[in-house]
Amino acid sequence: xxxxxxxxxxxxxxxxxxxxxxxxxxxxxxxxxxxxxxxxxxxxxxxxxxxxxxxxxxxxxxxxxxxxxxxxxxxxxxxxxxxxxxxxxxxxxxxxxxxxxxxxxxxxxxxxxxx
Length: 115
Prior knowledge:
Layout: E1 2-6, H1 8-23, E2 30-37, E3 41-57, E4 62-67, E5 70-75, E6 79-84, E7 90-96, E8 102-109
Antiparallel strand pairs: 1-6, 2-3, 2-8, 3-4, 4-5, 6-7, 7-8
């Protein structure tokens, strides 16, 4: 696994490339999304959903994760860290929000047999 800090337009390009590489084919990844943050502790946001895309708007400092029936938006995402598998699939995203709050999003890739 590799951990990388992303900022601004670099984050925008990174998530655009990730979405094109892993999610725009005929069989997009199914994921479990677990969100951890100071406001709500630890909770499972979605389980076994189809991950449709991740985007970052460098001007608005907004990270969006699009999945099955909804999305998860983080506004004020000035600092973004990603931990990825050897093949480049994002396993974890940690976002530093205003006032130093942090939110961590875990993406668990589902095996073909569990879909």
